[in-house]
Amino acid sequence: MIFDCDREPHHPSCFYLFNLKCVRHAADNTCASQCNQIKQFLDFLEQLEIGLEHVSTEVVQKYLFGYLFKKKKLQASTIKIHSTTLFSFFKFCFERCFISERVIYFSVFTDEYVESQQTYAELALEIKDLYMTNSDIKLLCEHVSGNSDFIRKRNRLAMMFGYYAGLRTSDVASNPLLTVAYFKRCIPNVLEGGELPISLDISYINKKSSKKVSLNIEFALISAIHDFIYDANIQDKLTSNTPLICQENGSALNDDRFASRKFSEAVENLIAAGNINNSEVKKWRKRHFHICRKCFATNKVVWCREQGLPPSIIVRDYLGHADFGTSIKHYIYADWLLNQHNNKEYLTFLTADETSLGRKFMKKSAIEM
């Protein structure tokens, strides 16, 4: 629910969100996102002492361009999402006669204009700040908190599933395929003479698409899972059907934002420890759990190149995307790859499905099937 400055329910937005959820049957995440976007806009209007009935194209332009783009430095794609939400909200208000109908333009600047304002150098610097190395994620995991050894190790695993497996925050907690029994079948106990695999193929349910996603995870995550499921102080709390990321009593952890919250807590702990300089503090302030998924995608491009595999097929499937264009546009830090490896061939490699490499992979896969 959204409240006005007098702490009374803001009726237009409350009715809009009710309609969005109960009439249009939008997902909970969609409702929550639009609620936050509308509240942010209303807070902006309150600062300007402008009522909803007095909003014009000029006010919308000040908000989208002056506030979101210039001050908050949001990407054009994110601003378009805010713009679309505001368009739907005002359309609803006009139709329900909450405010008098008028012409308001919500797309107040073009992509070309945005690109002219935000230079390539600025974008490259932003990516450099957001991307997390192996050392970064290990440092963050050292600052994960918890009241018990179980909770601390579980929370570290949540971070690692984002970075090393590319899971969304909604896929981490109580995923139906990621059970203790599943990992005990895949990962032997080294204390009983078993040997840890260097890499491992796993599957999980992508809750956003409700599809099964298969991917390859590396040793760092395998080792962490092993230490959790075979810990002498933890084993008694984990039954065969227990989800790997669960409550301490073994019951399901029904919290789609769990990993995001634990990431933010760890960042605050890291900053509070006072062992990083101001520049690093600013970097960590910009980061959030979903960045882990983007780092996973970027790292898998490097892995694909080392293995001779096409990222347009492998990374797309690992992320659970239908189109590799989504992976490139929103997830892979191509600028970081070019800068870090000083190799422009990565641009060609990212379109490997159009090369002999991609065709060879598809032919080999067809034979194996």
Automatic annotation (TrEMBL):
> CDD domains recorded for this chain?
DNA_BRE_C
Q: Which protein, by its recorded name, is this?
A: Site-specific integrase
Q: Which residues form the Tyr recombinase domain?
A: 127-347
GO MF:
DNA binding
Tell me the organism's taxonomic lineage: Bacteria, Pseudomonadati, Pseudomonadota, Gammaproteobacteria, Alteromonadales
A Pfam family the protein falls into: Phage_int_SAM_1
Q: Which UniProt keywords apply?
A: DNA integration, DNA recombination, DNA-binding
Where does the UniProt annotation place the signal sequence? none
An example GO biological process term is: DNA recombination
Organism field: Shewanella pneumatophori
InterPro entries in the cross-refs: DNA_brk_join_enz, Integrase-like_cat_sf, Integrase_catalytic, Integrase_recombinase_N, Integrase_SAM-like_N
